[in-house]
Amino acid sequence: MSVLxxxxxxxxxxxxxxxxxxxxxFNALTGSRQKVANYPGVTVxxxxxxxxxxxxxxxxxxxxxxxxSLRARSPDEEVTRDVVLGRFSHEDSPDLLVCVADATNLRxxxxxxxxLKRLGRPIILALNMMDAAExxxxxxxxxxxxxxxxxxxxxxxxxxxxxVQPLLEQIxxxxxxxxxxxxNPAPCGWSEPSSRDLRAYHQExxxxxxxxxxxxxxxxxxxxRVDAVLLHPVFGLAFLFLVLFLMFQAVFAWxxxxxxxxxxxxxxxxxxxxxxxxxxxxxxxxxxxxxAGVGSVVIFLPQILVLFFFILVLEATGYLARAAFLxxxxxxxxxxxxxxxxxxxxxxxxxxxxxxxxRTIENRADRLATIMIAPLMTCSARLPVYTLLIAAxxxxxxxxGGLVGLPGLVMFALYAAGILSALAVAFVLKGTVFKGxxxxxxxxxxxxxxxxxxxIALGLFERAKVFLARAxxxxxxxxxxxxxxxxxxxxxxxxxEPAIQYSIAGMIGHALEPLLAPIGxxxxxxxxxxxxxxxxxxxxxxxxxxxxxxxxxDALQSSLAGALAASWSLPTALSLLAWYVFAxxxxxxxxxxxxxxxxxxWPAVMFIYMITLAYGASFVTYRVASALL
Amino acid sequence: xxxxxxxxxxxxxxxxxxxxxxxxxRARVTGVDExxxxxxxxxxxxxxxxxxxxxxxxxxxxxxHEAFPGRDPIAIRVNEHTLALRRAEARxxxxxxxx
Lengths: 629, 99
Fold this sequence. Notes:
The structure holds two protein chains of two kinds. Chain A is α/β, with parallel strands linked by helices.
C-alpha cells in the first residue's frame, strides 16, 4: 500500500535545533490551520497542522519540540525521539522528516542532520534563514551539500512570503519516494550514540562544511555588540529590571480597559439573565454560579495575554535566554535554575500561566521546585482582598515626609513576604526533597532577531484558546459545585441571617470555626473562605453577602471596609492578610499543577505545605499582634 | 576512551580548562573530560552534552561575557554560535592557547 492510496493523509514531521526557526516554518506552512493538544500520558504539547501541496495533496505536519540530539534529555525531547523513531504507540511514525537547519549556524545544526540520517528514513533538509546567512556573506552550495548528504536540500526563508515554496515542491517529490521507502523500509541504524560516535558525527560535519561552504561569512557582530551592553554585569541587570518593570506596568495598565469591559459584559449578562428568568434555583445557578464564577476567571484573560505577549516577543528576539543567563547565579543562591525566573514572573499576574511556563526547565526536580513556589508570588487575584483589608485597617499616614504612604508600604510588605517566602521554600525544597546539584546550564544564546508579528499572533491565539478551554471545563464544573455548596439547603422561613449561613458552605464554615479561632478568624471569615477556595477574590463578595450589604463593585469595597473596621480586631485583620499570602485558595492553580505534573501527588503536596504555612503564619501574626497591640 | 588525543586525566594534561579563562581570552578545545565535575547527570552525560553543543576537540572558543556575581556563568563563542555555561561545568572542557 502506498502513501498515496492510504486513507490517512501523509504526515511530515519538522525536526531541528531550538532557535532554528522551526516554528516559524511550521506557521508559514500551515497558517492558522493548526491546533495544539497534549501527547497522551505526557504534558508535552503536540502541535499539528495541515496544508495542501502544489500537487493538491493534503499533508499533515507535526511540529516536534526542538532538540540538539535524539538522546532525549527532557520530556519535550523524549517526544521528538519517540515520534521520529516510531516508538509512540498512539501514532504512526511520520512518512517524511523535514529537518530544519539554521543556515547561519550550520555546524551545530548539521550535527543533528547527520544523526537523523542514521534513522534510514526519508529526509528533506530545509536550510532556513537563508537570507540572513547570505547577508553575512555565507555561501552555501546547496547542490553539493545535497550530493554529499544524499538527501534533498532546500533553502527556505520562513518569514518571507513565498519563502517556503521550494520546500512545498520538494515535499511533493519526496512523498513519492517516501511511498517506495514505506514498501522497503531501510533498517534503522540509530542507536544511542556514545561520546565516540558524537565525535565521529562532528568529523563528518567538518567534512561536509569543507566541501559545501565556500565562505562561512562573518560572525554576527551586531549581536555581540548588543550583548556587550545587555549582558553587562551592571547595565545588563539594570536593563533586565527595566524590562521587568515595564512588563509589570503593562500587565496592570494595558489590561485594565479590557478587564473593565469583560467585567461590564459579565455584569450585564448577569442582570439580563436575572431580569429574564423567574426567581429560583436555575436563575441563581446561572447568575451567581456559572456567570459570576467563570466570569471571575475569564476576567484575567487580558492580563494573561499581555504577559504572554511580552514573553513571546522576548523569546522571539532571543532575549529570554539572556535573562536566564543574567539571573542564573542570583537564582542559584536558593538552588533555582536561571530559567525559573519567567515562570515566577508570570505568577505575579496569575499562577496558572506561571506553572505552564515552567515547561522550559529541562530537569524535573528544578521544574517541580519552580512549580511548587509559583503560587507564593502575589497574583492579581489577591489584590482585591489586600486592598479591602488595607482600606479597612491601615490608616493613611504619610511616611518619610510623604514619599510613601503606610498603605503602600503594607502592600509592598505583602508582595515582599510572598517573594521571600518563595525563596525560602525553594531553598528548603532544594536542600531536602530535590536534593542534588543543579541541572547544568548549557544554553545557546541565539543571535538577536526581530520577532515576526504572525508568529506572535499565532502564539497568543494558542494561549487564549488553552486558557479559555480550561475556564470552560474544569473551572466551569468547579463553579457549579461551589454554587451548590453555597446555596443548599436554602434559608428556612423567617430566617434572620443571610441565606449562605444555612447552606452547606455555611455549615462547613461553622464547623471550621473552632479550628480557625486560634488564628483569630471569626465565623464570618470561616464561611467566606469556603467559596473562596475556588478563587481568592470571591471571598470579598461572600463577605459582602454575610454583612448583608447590597452594594457591588467599588461601592461594596468602601462600605464593606467600614463594616469590617467596626467588627474585626486589628490582629484578626493582620492574621487574615498573612493567611492570604500563603493559602492555596485557587482550584485553577491546583488543577493546572495536576495537569502539568501528571498526577495528584504534587498538587496535594502543594496544598498541604501552603495551608500549613498559612495557618502557621496567621497563628504567629495573630498571637504577636494580640500581645503587642 | 575513544583513542582520541584526549588525555586520560585532567592533571596530566598540564593545560588549562575553559572554566578558568577570562573575558576576551581565546583558546582551542583539546579535550573533554568530565571527571572532577559534580553534576546531577549520569556518568558520561555531561561529556556528550558538551560535544553536542559544539565543545569538541578542535573547536575555537572565546569568552565573550561574564555574568554577575562571581563572573559566572560565562557566555562563550564556539566557532559560529554562542553558548552560556557555568564555570563549574566548563572545567570539563580542556583548552590550549589559540594558534
